[in-house]
Amino acid sequence: MTDSATPSPLELASRLIACPSVTPARGAVFDALEAMLKPLGFNVLRTIDGDAPSGPVENLLAVRPGPEGTRHFAFAGHLDVVPAGDGWTSDPFMPEVRGEMLHGRGAVDMKSQIAAMVAAAARIPAEAGTISFIITGDEEGPARFGTLALMEHMAARDIVPDLCLVGEPTSVARLGDMMKIGRRGSVNIWLEVHGNEGHVAYPHLADNPIPRLVAMLAELDALELDDGTDWFQPSNLEITDLEVGNPATNVIPAAARARLSIRFNDLHTGAQLSARVTEIAERHGGTAHPVISGEPFLTEPGAFSALLAEAIRAETGLEPELSTGGGTSDARFLKSVCPVIEFGPCNATMHKRDEAIALPDLDALVRIYERAARAALALQESFARDPR
Question: Which of 61, 246, 248, 251 is 20 to 30 A from 384 (CA-CA)?
Answer without folding.
Answer: 61
